[in-house]
Amino acid sequence: MLLAFFVQIIVGCSNDDAIILESENENDIIPVEQTGMVPCENGLAGVYPCDGYDQVGNITLANFDAAKGNDCWGWTDPDTGKEYAIMGLDNGTAFVDITDDENLVYIGKLPTATVAISWRDVKVYQNHAFIVSEARNHGMQVFDLTRLRDVTSPPQTFDADVNYTEFGNAHNIVINEESGFAYAVGTSTFGGGGHFVNIQNPKQPMAAGGHAVNGYTHDAQVISYIGPDSDYTGKEIYIGANEDRVAIIDVTDKDNPQEISTITYDNFSYTHQGWFTEDQKYFILGDETDETNFGFNSRTLIFDFSDLDNPVLHDTYLGPTAAIDHNGYVLGNEFFLANYTAGLRVLDISNIEDKNIVEVGYFDSHPNTDNAAFNGVWSVYPYFSSGKILISDIDRGLFVVKKSN
Fold first, then answer.
1. If we measure between CA atoms, which residue out of 156, 17, 135, 55 comes closest to residue 397?
2. How many CB atoms lie within 10 A of CB 93?
3. How far is residue 172's CA from residue 185's CA, in Å, rounded to a whole number?
4. How far is CA 57 from the centre of its chain?
5. Structural domains of the chain ordered from first start
6. DSSP 323
7. SS3 of 190, please?
8. 2, pLDDT greater than 80
């Protein structure tokens, strides 16, 4: 089992080089295909197409003893400043110290609460990871990330600190870090809508109601509202990607959530996920299957949310490839999009008001094709102060990349 080994990444090797995994038994040496720092030169980082982003490191699924990858998120230790990747796998959740460019360290894995399955999702609040899965009877695992500080012989196998069981399977977990509430979506409760959980004490999560009016929520963002619509200043607003619509809900009063409005749009196929611009004026939405059903290039919809009671479509961006868009996140004036077979795509949204969105970089961890298929990048995480970006690839594991100098 690879979990018995320490992962050491050698910097500067080519994709054909073997990386050494060293166990506690110095005689056990296993070659593993794995790469460290590879600069983006002439449009390639090794075999991976790129523009403006270098590879810092890659840890394969074999290293994680897993068959498939899915979601990712990140955590920065407030005491040590170390940065950690949290990588969802079919059979659990992996934790990787990415602080040292020359030595990514696989700290260990939290196994799935029940069975292995392709879908897992994780978010972080108050130094704890909250993990859900489509696996039956999985519930929500809570893991104290400060435990990663004390690992001396990685990788280790961890257990959860808490397992919240008020629901079984869930498709996703959303957290509003300002309010201290989590929102499990796609559960068997509340018609698949938001299942509210008070996590202000992370090790004592408490059920706090839910919302079922608009049906199944696939993904969501929940914010404490500071946007341009003064009617809702200070309210907690839930934006649900609900398969065939976007639902905007005031969830300030957990006992009495109020629908504000819903959005539909032309050529909808599967309303998947979206994210606010930092001023909360625009909401950037992806429809997961419009590329396959309508033949669009990667299509991103931009809604003007200046009036939450009357949101309108502002613009439509079509990417340079046929690849399917998945999760996307905003940081400053950039939108970081997990674009399945086309990899990570970075869009400049500084002129979003003038409907001028431009791709400014990419790193494609799926070099085979850019076809509309469900392979390649599942998610990205761009929020480390170091500028490192996580890419979770369904087939090739965890990539860490950074903007080229």
1. 55
2. 29
3. 5
4. 18
5. 213-380 (2.130.10.10)
6. P
7. helix
8. no
Tokens of 155: 């990788």
Residue 145 is given by DSSP the state G
CA dist list (Å): 64 to 67, 148, 397: 9, 16, 8
* Residue-averaged pLDDT of the chain: 92
Q: Which residues pair with 401 in a beta bridge?
A: 55, 389
Q: What is the mean pLDDT of residues 351-379?
A: 97
CA 297 to chain centre: 22
Spatial strand order in the sheet of 271-276:
271-276, 282-287, 299-304, 312-318
CA distances from 196 to 37, 238, 347, 395 (A): 41, 11, 32, 32
Q: How far apart are CA 169 and CA 193, in angstroms?
A: 13
Chain-centre distance of CA 39, in angstroms?
24
CA distance 55 to 69: 18
pLDDT at 35: 64
Please state the rounded mean pLDDT for residues 264-281. Answer: 97
pLDDT in tens, 62-115: 999 999 999 999 999 999 999 999 999 999 999 999 999 989 999 999 999 999
Residue 7: is its pLDDT beyond 50?
Answer: no
Q: Within a 13 Å sphere around the CA of 12, how many CA atoms are in the beta-carbon half?
A: 1
- CB atoms inside a 10 Å sphere around CB 139: 24
State whether residue 231 is helix, strand or coil.
helix
d(CA 113, CA 115): 7
> Percent of the chain beyond pLDDT 90?
90
| Edge-to-edge order in the sheet of strand 162-164 | 120-125, 128-133, 140-144, 162-164
pLDDT at 32 over 80: no
How many residues make up the chain in this entry? Answer: 405
Reported confidence tier of residue 320, pLDDT bands at 50, 70, 90:
very high
Instruction: Look at residue 180 and tell me whether its pLDDT is greater than 70.
Output: yes
Distance between CA 390 and CA 124 in Å, rounded?
Answer: 15
The answer to whether residue 193 scores a pLDDT higher than 70 is yes
